[in-house]
TrEMBL record, chain A:
This is ABC transporter domain-containing protein. The keyword Iron-sulfur does not apply. One of its GO terms (molecular function) is ATP binding. It comes from Wenjunlia tyrosinilytica. SMART domains: AAA.
UniProtKB/TrEMBL annotation, chain B:
It comes from Wenjunlia tyrosinilytica. The chain crosses the membrane at residues 40-64, 140-165, 190-210, 230-251. InterPro entries: Permease_MalE. The keyword Transmembrane applies. It comes from the Bacteria. Keywords: Membrane, Transmembrane, Transmembrane helix. One of its GO terms (molecular function) is phospholipid transporter activity. This is ABC transporter permease. PANTHER family: ABC TRANSPORTER PERMEASE PROTEIN-RELATED, PROTEIN TRIGALACTOSYLDIACYLGLYCEROL 1, CHLOROPLASTIC. One of its GO terms (cellular component) is ATP-binding cassette (ABC) transporter complex. The lineage of its organism: Bacteria, Bacillati, Actinomycetota, Actinomycetes, Kitasatosporales.
Length: 319, 256
């Protein structure tokens, strides 16, 4: 289960404005990856390009042996059946209630009898904790519920790849924690390839196997979680710690001299400004989020759990 | 709308591309019967009452104009013939065009535009469902079907209104009015009017769908899209009406 996504030399611009250029990365099959980046660096555009909603200017995206940037429309719709996408606001169909929304892909794509559809829909609704809200319309429920319903709808066709567009935006910290746990549990259960686009650092530190960072119209870094958490790269350090000092400014970029000075201050141990806004936990080792105890862990998660309970984690606990 | 000189051409091209896509998707199964019926009901619901209310005064204006014109020319016996001709040939396709674009098209555009900015259309594509097949084709067919029926409604209400104003208010002779009905008008007039309505319905729905599916920039974008869709549809419908009328006179031999 799970499909590898291989992106090479991807470039996208709107008119003369380059969004990002030359992005190359591989999302390993069955693993969770997070794409980080300051607001407005084209994270959502990247996600939409991956599912073929936007055509890149250059480069290729290979999924299951097929380059989706060159597929004919008909074949593209076939490949898209591998995907489940959770859009920012859930993107539920406003004219249908939650049950019909979640049943929609099944009714369109399969010839399952209504009783079978009912079983699957209720199972997915149970998974995201929406039992009892079947007959509610999307306009009548909170943003968090819409998100969970959107997730349930993304899950009904048993996708091989699930993309999350800012799953944490507009949710309170407790719900974000639940959602993160849900993402990890799902990954352990269905083994699909996950990509989460976000700027919530707490989630990025705990959830993924791999982290990528988009900044200044390019992919600054993509690699295993620990590599990025330990990275000396100023942009990565600034972002993952939510600092004001560093290359990222309020209006996208700062001038070189100021960056230089701030990095020197940091090097000398002078930290100023608020300690990381959104979900930043500061430096140190962040333990990896593991699937809930009730869930049967596949070998991959067993390995991760063993590693987490190894010497490194204990060292973290001592701090 | 951007002001670059190529933008207009690009939009025109995309609009025609959508029209071709609709044509190409038309035979694809399964046919979305449920959506078609819902949309036909919806478009009919937003257009029937305004159409009836517009066509009564429209028929009356034509009756008044023709009544006074025929009196001036001394051809009162032809007032029935002329008013039927005017209603059937021009008034009813034009009223249909206005209503199908103004009421039906704007409703379709607003609906699709709202879905677009809520990312529903994107979500649908990602779920592997072609929005043209699922949403646009049923709307185009529904709008065409309703336009044809509306054209019939306008013709009936217009002719009845003309009769009422001419006979009851202008004291014309009912017998002469009815007897002259078929002296100028002929059956091809009705077929042409229905064909016009069919084409108008298609154009209105395609333009509305195009504008709705390309709406961007939040709620204001949807408002702009609706506004543009109505304006563009009006222009296209009047041009199409002219062309079809010109062709009609070349193709169908006239009476008398």
């Amino acid at each position: 289960m799970g499909v590898e996504i291989c992106v090479e030399g991807l470039t996208k611009s709107f008119g003369h404005q380059v969004i990002w250029r030359d992005v190359s990365l591989t999302l390993p099959a069955g693993e969770i990856s997070v794409m980080l980046g300051p607001s407005g660096t084209g994270k959502s555009v990247f996600l939409k390009t991956l599912v073929g909603l936007l055509k890149p200017d250059r480069g290729s995206i290979t999924i299951a042996g097929r380059d989706i940037t060159r597929l004919r429309e008909h074949d593209l719709y076939e490949v898209r059946k591998l995907f489940g996408v959770l859009f920012q606001d859930g993107a539920l169909f406003g004219s249908m209630d939650l049950y019909d929304n979640i049943a929609f892909p099944l009714r369109e794509h399969t010839r399952k009898p209504e009783s079978e559809i009912r079983r699957i829909v209720l199972e997915k609704m149970d998974m995201v904790g929406l039992i009892g809200a079947e007959r509610k319309l999307p306009g009548e429920i909170s943003g968090g519920m819409r998100k969970r319903a959107g997730l349930a709808r993304a899950l009904v066709l048993d996708p091989e790849i699930i993309l999350f567009d800012e799953p944490d935006s507009g949710l309170d910290p407790v719900r974000v924690a639940y959602l993160n746990q849900l993402i990890v549990d799902l990954n352990a259960q269905i083994n699909a390839t996950f990509l989460i686009v976000t700027h919530d650092i707490a989630s990025a530190r705990q959830v993924p196997d791999n982290i990528g960072l988009l900044f200044r119209r390019e992919l600054v870094m993509f690699g295993p979680r620990q590599v990025l958490l330990d990275s000396d790269e100023p942009v990565v350090g600034q972002f993952l710690n939510g600092r004001m000092q560093g290359p990222i400014g309020m209006a996208e970029e700062k001038d070189a001299a100021q960056v230089e000075q701030e990095l020197a201050e940091l090097g000398a141990g002078h930290r100023r400004g608020p300690q990381g806004g959104k979900g930043a936990t500061g430096a140190g080792v962040t333990p990896r989020l593991l699937p809930s105890p009730g869930i049967v862990r596949p070998p991959r998660w067993q390995d991760i759990a063993d590693r987490e309970s190894g010497p490194r984690a204990r060292e973290g606990a001592d701090l | 709308m951007s002001l670059s000189p190529t933008a207009g051409l690009r939009h025109t091209g995309s609009l025609f591309a959508l029209a071709l896509d609709v044509l190409r998707t038309l035979p694809r199964r399964p046919f979305q019967a449920r959506e078609f019926i819902q949309q036909a009901w919806f478009v009919a619901g937003v257009t029937i009452l305004p159409t009836a209310l517009v066509s009564i005064p429209f028929g009356a204006v034509i009756a008044l104009q023709i009544g006074s014109l025929t009196r001036q020319l001394g051809a009162q016996s032809f007032s029935g013939a002329a008013s039927v001709l005017a209603v059937l040939r021009e008034a009813s396709p034009i009223v249909t065009a206005l209503l199908i674009a103004g009421a039906g098209g704007s409703a379709i555009c607003a609906d699709l535009g709202a879905r677009k900015i809520r990312e529903e259309i994107d979500a649908m594509e990602v779920l592997g469902i072609d929005p043209i097949h699922r949403l646009v084709v049923p709307r185009v067919l529904a709008s065409m079907a309703v336009a044809v029926l509306l054209n019939g409604l306008v013709s009936v209400v217009g002719v009845a209104g003309g009769y009422f104003f001419n006979v009851v208010l202008q004291h014309g002779t009912p017998g002469a009015y009815l007897a002259s009905f078929t002296t100028l008008a002929q059956l091809p007039d009705l077929w042409t009017a229905e064909l016009k309505a069919l084409v108008f319905g298609a154009i209105a729905a395609i333009v509305a769908s195009y504008k709705g599916l390309t709406a961007k920039g939040g709620p204001k974008g949807v408002g702009d899209a609706v506004n543009q869709s109505v304006v563009i549809t009006f222009m296209l419908l009047f041009v199409t009406n002219f062309v079809m009328t010109a062709v009609y006179f070349q193709v169908v031999p006239q009476r008398g």
